[in-house]
Design brief:
The protein is mainly alpha-helical and 202 residues long. The protein contains nine helices and no strands. It is elongated. The N and C termini lie far apart (68 Å).
Length: 202
Amino acid sequence: MNDRSARPYLSVAERREVLLHAAVAVLRDGGVEALSLRTVAERAGVAHRVVSYAFGSKAELVKALLVRETSSAVDASWRAPLADPGFGASVEAALTAYASVIRGDPRLTESLAALTAFARLSPDLSGAVRSEAELARDRIDALVTDWAAAHPDAGIDVDQAVTGIHAAAEGIAAWWLATRDDDRLPDVVRTFSAGIAASAKR
């Protein structure tokens, strides 16, 4: 018998986190086509109305999922301040960390890329993609701004550097998913990093 009284009380934020964890599992196992409020409810072992109450719609679920997973990847890649030995080396270290994140769970990375592509083409979901991109850019901007403030003589154009790093991260992810070429990955990261450092020099 299902004893509902035995379930611990969860705040709305805690409940959303549990449901997003279930959504990740659904996405990883079944892909974009499998993701719905109902399948998330089934995976989490709760009634459909619980997911509906937490998110309201599939669009809001997708937005929350993309923002959550982007936050996780960004935090794992960019949690440390950019290192000191030259801007190019700092960017290379950060992009190498990002590459390690995407290689750590290829199935989830592929599924999230597919979800992003699907959302980009949907009028109801395109806002989720913008929220995801803005979050990543803001985090990168904060780190580059801190580095530039600590190295005023480096003459870095922060906006140019942030744009380059953000675009490079997206490009590296797409390239690696298409090729799975671990041998050439360090060279790809190094090439992007050198180009970003050169273009950001004022």
